[in-house]
Amino acid sequence: MNTPEQVNASARQDRKNFFAANVFAVGYATHGLFPYRGKFHPQMIKAIMNVMGLRTGDTVLDPMAGCGTTSIEASIMGLNSIAYELSPFACLMTRAKVGVLEMDCSNFPRLLKYADEIYQRFAPHEKRLAVQQTLFQAASPGKDVLDLEDAFPRLSPPMRELLLLCYLDAVGYAARRKGKTPRDLFPDLLSRYLAAVQAFNETREELGIRLGQAQVIEGDARHLQLPDESVDGVLFSPPYSFAIDYVENDRPQLQFLGVDIENLKQNMVGLIGSGRTRQQLIESRVTNYFADMEAIMTHCKRVLRPGCYCVIVIGSNTNQTGGISLENGLIEIGAKIGMPLEFQIMRQIEGIRNTMRDEFLLFFRKPGVLNVCEERRENL
Ligand SMILES: C[S@@+](CC[C@H](N)C(=O)[O-])C[C@H]1O[C@@H](n2cnc3c(N)ncnc32)[C@H](O)[C@@H]1O
User: Fold this and answer.
1) Which of 43, 70, 98, 240 has the fewest CB atoms within 10 Å distance of its CB?
2) Looking at the structure, do residues 193 and 325 belong to the same domain, yes or no?
3) 324 within 8 A of 286, measured Cβ to Cβ
4) 319 with 193, same domain?
């Protein structure tokens, strides 16, 4: 609703930068809250869900949900969604970003007025965040962790989690900005978070958007605990393995949440493997990666209704895999488990071309009676 012309007139520099960098194109609704690397392009997800033939009331599963792009887009389109994700921090992001899509914003001015008091509820737990800790100083998992309900008894669960996300954002932002503390940055960030939530809620009401329901499950995609034939589509992007270490990236946030980081690492697809040389490490990681992806794709096929799509978005980066193309490996797995590739789309990636050139959208399809999915796709 905010066109660049309106914003340019009297805007602060950070808002001008936001539009100049074209961030509004991918940061609408709650997508722009907390910068998470390797996140989907939201409009692409909407387009894919249309091509999959999903309609109001259908359920889409993202088994490696990250910061919840699929769930946010699904909700806005009136689709129900299930976000499955191993990282407790990514689950927090998804719950917060989806949970505030429908919310009473009347107390926002009051929250802004008490921004510093809100910050002070988090501050005593700040020592858990120290990024470079020795073995002996390392924050012990689960100990002295902030109890959000205790800290903000009168706020709704999504609002509490939004405040926590905003606080963790301020901490990360301060680490990148010289001479600024999280406390300096928190009020400004909070006003940005609340403005985004309010803008979306006003738009939702004005347009009469009825949101789909979103469920967030913390769990391992290799052992999906969902019933057979219970979803109408699967859409996800496995870690661009070898390119982003999600655990190291999110270490301060995970520490703050009291997560057992070493245990998490051992189950993160793309990071599992060992070797004495770099070559051995890569080979071991690639082997484990394909075994894990086979387990995940087999579950995806099991939970899909017959005739529906499982779409995997994957970047190509043969430099980091010892020459092996991940997309071809996944196509082979699809053929092996009886969920063949129906078609694929390739697109060039902007922004991270030094690590990744192309992205493949792989449309696998579970065989079965031509159900409503097929008719819908043909009608498009
Ligand atoms: C490329 S990111 C997904 C980004 C997501 N599409 C988005 O838009 O935010 C891959 C995600 O897989 C998650 N992941 C890694 N291993 C997993 C596992 N065994 N089970 C579930 N999720 C896992 C990582 O934590 C990471 O958030």
Assistant:
1) 43
2) no
3) yes
4) no
Q: Specify whether 143 is located in the same domain as 190.
A: yes
What is the number of structural domains in the chain?
2
165 and 309 housed in the same domain: no
Give pLDDT, residue 337: 98
Measure the CA angle with vertex 251, ends 249 and 257; round to 5°.
135
Q: Is 300 in the pocket of ligand 1 (CB under 6 A)?
A: no
Residues 204 and 220 occupy one common structural domain: no
Q: What is the mean pLDDT of each run of 10 residues along the chain (380 residues)?
A: 55 68 73 80 93 94 96 97 96 97 96 94 74 44 72 92 94 83 93 94 95 98 97 92 74 88 91 85 89 98 97 82 85 98 87 65 90 56
Q: In what order do the strands lie in the sheet with 304-315?
A: 214-218, 80-85, 59-62, 231-236, 304-315, 358-365, 341-348
Q: Rg of the chain's alpha carbons, rounded to an integer?
A: 21
Q: What is the 3-state secondary structure (H, E, C) of 31-65?
A: CCCCCCCCCCCHHHHHHHHHHCCCCCCCEEEECCC
Q: Give yes or no: residues 217 and 201 share one domain.
A: no
CATH number at 70 reads 3.40.50.150
Does the CB atom of residue 313 touch ligand 1 within 6 A? no
Q: How far is the CA of 346 from the centre of ligand 1 (A)?
A: 21
Q: List the domain range (segments joined by +) for residue 117.
A: 102-210
Structure confidence at residue 22 (pLDDT): 60
In a domain, 62, yes or no: yes
Task: Indicate whether 150 and 74 sit together in one domain.
Answer: no
The rounded Å distance from CA 239 to ligand 1 centre is 6
- For residue 180, the CA-to-ligand 1 centroid distance in Å is 31
For atom 13 of ligand 1, which residue has the closest CA? 64
Report CA(186)–ligand 1 centroid distance (Å). 27
Q: What is the dihedral of CA 261, 162, 29, 313, to 10 degrees?
A: 10
Q: How many residues does the chain have?
A: 380
CA dihedral 372→80→229→363, nearest 10 degrees, is 70
